[in-house]
Each structure stands twice: as structure tokens, then as C-alpha cells.
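Marked as duplicate of an earlier ticket. Keeping the data here for the record.
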Amino acid sequence: MPSDRGLLAVLERRTVNARKVWTVVAVTACVLSLGSPLTSGIGAGARVGLAALHLVVGAAVILGLRRTALSATERC
């Protein structure tokens, strides 16, 4: 997602611990995104399926982009 990479790039320029801050923001966004599939008026099977998809995509994005983040020593 381009906005995720953009946030990570801004954090890398402005904070010392960009990887940690970005991970907290990304996990929070992933948890908040579960609200829609869990509260919508659909069947239980569909809720479980949508929640699982949210978690799989969230884990892939969080772990993938977290791994690409530069550490403080690499940025200097």
C-alpha cells in the first residue's frame, strides 16, 4: 500500500525509532479494521472469513514493511 510506505518514509525521516512507531500504528489500524466485518449484519461464517482475510493481509503488510524499515544506524 502506498500510504503505508509513505508513513514509514516520513517516520524514518522524523523519528529515531520509526520501525517501532510504524508497527504500533499499523497494528492499531489492523485491529480497528476488524470492526467492520465483525459488526456487519452478515452470517457467522462470512464474519469469520472476512476477519481472517483482514488478519492475513494485515500480517503480510505489517511484517513485510517492518522488515524493510531502516534502523537508526542505517539512516545516518
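See parent ticket for discussion. Residues 2-75 form one domain.
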